[in-house]
Write a structure and sequence with these properties.
Blueprint: H1 6-10, H2 12-15, E1 55-65, H3 67-78, E2 83-89, H4 113-121, H5 136-148, E3 162-166, H6 176-188, E4 192-196, E5 205-206, E6 222-223, H7 229-238, E7 252-257, E8 269-274, H8 276-279, E9 284-290, H9 297-300, H10 303-307, H11 310-316, E10 319-323, H12 353-364
Parallel strand pairs: 1-2, 1-9, 2-3, 3-4, 5-6, 9-10
Antiparallel strand pairs: 7-8, 8-10
Length: about 375
């Protein structure tokens, strides 16, 4: 999902140009690369615009799987003053890939070293399986400096927020050691974490609304592991929930024109589920759900947006669910969210094109 055909995904020839040097632990000003947004369908202009609802910006949660989990973490760190937490399936530590440009945050580890991190160290299926661990101290130093320079909200805003973290015992794509390091980094900043590391699951988003086996990878990257993950993490963030709607949903799943917000690697269409009472002006919460590689609408249709297990809980609990969409693009052949810098050197911060685009959608809602 995130690491299939890794060289093709990352454009290995381009990222192997990293220069030698030592990590400085600083964040120099690094302008975003001027890439054009990639749009799948020009007819998106005929779709409705993203609506505006009665949502408090302090009631925002981000959730994602694999590259979507990494994007969720990037959003959480970039806008921690507003985002109250993240739910991640198979996610890696913030800025795990380090960036493949020698300009980004001053982190240069020698020829090919950044490429190695982007290719392997954020999955753990290669080098980390031999006991190598990520430089969490370095990542934390650069995170602190990035926040001081305004690229992220103050790291103090992370304290008191929450993270719900899942990693399957049988995940052959992202090793548990990587996910546990993500937990360690979040805990370092005072984020309260709830974890599940004991389920015999392969790589995917766990939902009771799919029939796909828990222990095998499938083309949708949706797996049923016999429990309701969405119930667990939504309860963790929002408290006791009303029962989910297992019948006909009263709200609407809306395909909207994402083009006004889309950056490089983003589709021209997006989806949003709006419960009937939220459409009528009731005060509502917001969950941003981020698919993984090869899991956007251009790959699996509406499978993720209809079978994530979120809409059924959202319908009865005044929760709007935003489903931004990524698409294959230059340097990103599998439609991943940017977790290694294919959109620009500041990809992981509030200067990152995709991070900023999703935040603008959140503000609009």
């Amino acid at each position: 999902m995130r690491y299939t055909q890794l060289a093709a995904v990352l454009g290995l020839a381009a990222i192997m140009t990293a220069c030698s040097g030592a990590g400085s632990g600083s964040l120099p000003v690094a302008p975003t690369e001027n890439q054009s947004a990639v749009h799948r369908d020009a007819s998106a202009a005929t779709l409705p615009s993203l609506g505006h609802y009665n949502v408090n910006l302090s009631d925002v949660v981000v959730a994602g799987v694999s590259s979507g989990a990494d994007m969720a973490t990037q959003l959480h760190f970039s806008y921690s003053a507003n985002i109250k937490g993240e739910a991640i399936f198979a996610g890696s530590p913030f800025f795990c890939a380090l960036g493949t440009s020698d300009a980004f945050w001053g982190l240069v580890y020698g020829p090919g070293y950044s490429a190695d991190y982007a290719l392997y160290s954020c999955s753990g299926t290669e080098y980390w399986s031999e006991g190598e661990s990520p430089p969490l101290g370095t990542l934390e130093t650069d995170t602190n400096n990035a926040a001081k320079d305004g690229y992220l909200d103050p790291v103090s805003d992370l304290s008191g927020s929450k993270a719900w973290i899942f990693s399957g015992e049988d995940d052959t794509v992202v090793a548990q050691s990587v996910v546990k390091d993500s937990q360690s980094m979040l805990s370092h900043y005072g984020v309260s974490t709830t974890t599940n590391y004991t389920t015999a699951a392969e790589h995917g988003w766990v939902t009771p609304d799919t029939s796909n086996s828990c222990g095998a990878i499938n083309s949708q990257y949706l797996i049923n592991c016999g429990f309701d993950a969405e119930d667990e993490f939504l309860t963790d963030f929002f408290g006791t929930l009303n029962p989910r709607n297992d019948g006909t949903l009263s709200g609407s799943l809306i395909e909207f024109n994402q083009a006004p917000y889309a950056a490089a690697g983003m589709d021209s269409v997006g989806y949003i589920y709006v419960p009937a009472n939220c459409a009528g002006g009731a005060a509502c919460k917001l969950v941003v759900a981020l698919h993984g590689c090869e899991q956007g609408e251009s790959y699996v249709g509406t499978a993720f947006v209809t079978e994530s297990g979120l809409n059924e809980w959202a319908d009865t609990n005044s929760i709007i669910v935003l489903y931004p969409q990524a698409i294959a693009s230059s340097g990103n052949s599998l439609g991943c969210w940017d977790w290694w810098d294919y959109t620009g050197t500041a990809y992981a911060s509030n200067e990152g094109p995709q991070v900023n685009a999703i935040w603008k959608m959140i503000e609009q809602i």
